[in-house]
Design brief:
Helix content is 3%, strand content 44%. The protein is mostly beta strands and 523 residues long. The relative contact order is 0.17.
Length: 523
């Protein structure tokens, strides 16, 4: 089991063919031994009679796996950070309790979760529970019993301004065992007096904390960046740059194209301009640039007051896949769901396909009826499956639109019921190039590989797939047919001429009938 580096899929439909002009002078694309997913056209020279489509995820039948069980867990749990600890051979989760701190859970199988009785806050919790962070927003000093005032006033200043969990990671790279676990969170001081000001006001920022065991945490007593305005916020480690990367929400960003399209609209003034900025850090403490770098905002292809709520970027096989948290905000249709994006530098993002939901929202009567909130950790690779933990709610996000039915019966709706669920898919199977009964063909651009044997991830159990190694002039040097199969790793040793092309320009052509191609790689 290991941490995965990618989330991704939405229902993508592309035209059945997209010939792409090839530049003969373009340098071959180095792919090394990375898996090449068919998310976009980066490595594709041409395609005919194929449809690109994101594949469906499977929601676990026991969802939601984690629900509020006690009143001290607030009105629900969200923003799950879930890891599989290879050293301890156990699943660990940290969840946010909507302003009531952070709670820690463990599991043997990732499905059934235990709440260890830690007893870290006896001054406030009458019985030992699994709370590991006591939020400053849960207990205001002015409302606290006198016998608890000393404890409140002596608390670390960082927890005083803790608002919501950003995420938790276990970091084996750090030489300091006291910093083995790292936490990010939204810091809010509602009475902050800025230099030169006479009155206090709201100050938001990025808070961080460290722990040797993921249970006993020490916060840094000041925000490490004031570029962060709200949550969700996401932090991950970029191996290629050897830096931590934060993707956080800001407000007031509207692209010129969107502004021009909706100029004069009465509703457009309600667009808050939620967008995503990017920051970097080498040590988790010092973040640049000071105000972040804008990497994603809603555009003219989105509806007038729909916005980008957040973005989680996860490295995977040499690229980054983005889980775009999209606020779909239209009359009678208010939803929060995930779309898919891809980036090759972590800064320039392409939202893919028709921007449909990745994990479908729940139907009538279900727990995740209208709102999905993103994971605050990377997905997990469990065998050949990708596990994505996410949170859902059965309430509509606040909006300017009113429900048509203002019946008193609306006040009798059941209480909020936020929880955490699990969605799974097979490795690499986010997006497929699909062929129906009419044969389809995909030809790659020239690339440089470092392997000897071709492997493919495909579903052609009742179809046919032929792979051709092409010469520079497009003629076929060698051709092999893959027997009917459906597997995440299909070796193709018959393509023997490929080994001699290691380090040399190479092109492949895939011809397929009644099947799906997800990825290929050479190792």
């Amino acid at each position: 089991m290991k941490k995965l580096a990618l989330i991704a899929s939405l229902i993508i439909s592309a035209p059945s063919g997209f010939p792409v002009a090839s530049d003969p002078a373009a340098a071959p694309i180095p792919i090394g031994t990375h898996r090449q997913l068919v998310l976009d056209d980066y490595l594709i020279e041409s395609s005919t009679h194929l449809t690109r489509r994101v594949q469906p995820v499977t929601k676990h039948p026991a969802n939601p796996l984690i629900l509020r069980t006690n009143k001290f867990e607030g009105v629900g749990v969200t923003f799950p950070s879930v890891i599989y600890d290879e050293q301890e051979k156990i699943f660990k989760a940290w969840v946010d309790a909507h302003g009531r701190g952070v709670f820690y859970l463990t599991s043997q199988d990732g499905i059934h979760w235990d709440r260890p009785k830690l007893g870290l806050f006896p001054q406030f919790d009458p019985e030992p529970n699994h709370r590991v962070v006591l939020s400053g927003y849960e207990f205001a000093i002015k409302d606290a019993p006198k016998d608890k005032l000393d404890y409140l006033r002596s608390r670390e200043r960082g927890w005083t301004y803790f608002c919501n969990l950003g995420g938790v990671v276990k970091d084996p790279r750090d030489a300091d065992p006291q910093r083995r676990y790292k936490m990010s969170y939204l810091w809010i001081d509602r009475n902050y007096v800025r230099p030169g000001a006479t009155k206090g006001g709201k100050m938001t920022g990025l808070g961080v904390a460290f722990s040797p065991d993921g249970i006993n945490w020490t916060p840094v007593n000041q925000p490490v960046s004031d570029a962060v305005y709200d949550c969700p916020l996401h932090i991950t480690f970029d191996e290629s740059r050897r830096r931590w990367v934060a993707l956080a929400r800001v407000f007031g960003v509207i692209t010129p194209e969107k502004k021009a399209k909706y100029a004069g609209s009465e509703n457009f003034k309600y667009n808050g301009g939620r967008a995503v900025i990017r920051l970097e850090s080498e040590d988790f403490l010092h973040w640049t640039p000071a105000k972040g770098e804008l990497v994603m905002a809603s555009d003219e292809h989105d509806s007038e007051i729909s916005e980008i709520y957040s973005l989680r970027a996860i490295p995977y096989e040499g690229i980054q896949i983005g889980l775009v948290h999209f606020f779909h905000n239209e009359p009678g249709d208010v939803r929060l769901y995930f779309q898919l994006a891809v980036s090759r530098d972590g800064k320039t993002w392409q939202r893919l396909g028709d921007r449909s939901p990745f994990i479908p929202l729940g139907g009538l009567g279900e727990w995740d009826r209208s709102t999905h909130m993103p994971p605050s950790s990377d997905p997990l690779m469990i065998g050949d499956e990708i596990w994505i933990y996410y949170s859902g709610r059965n309430i509509i996000h606040p909006t300017r639109w009113k429900l048509d039915d203002d019946s008193p019966a609306l006040k009798e709706l059941p209480p909020f019921r936020g929880g955490i669920g699990l969605a799974t898919l097979k490795r690499d199977r986010f997006v497929a190039m699909e062929a129906s009964l009419r044969p389809g063909t995909l030809r790659t651009k020239p690339f440089i590989h470092q392997g000897r044997q071709l492997h493919i991830n495909a579903a052609v159990k009742f179809g046919a797939l032929t792979i051709s190694l092409l010469n520079a002039d497009g003629s076929v040097e060698q051709k092999v047919t893959v027997p009917g199969t459906d597997a995440v790793d299909i070796p193709v040793p018959q393509l023997t001429a490929l080994a001699a092309r290691s380090g040399q320009p190479t092109r492949l052509e895939f011809s397929m009938t009644n099947g799906r191609l997800f990825s290929f790689w050479i190792k």
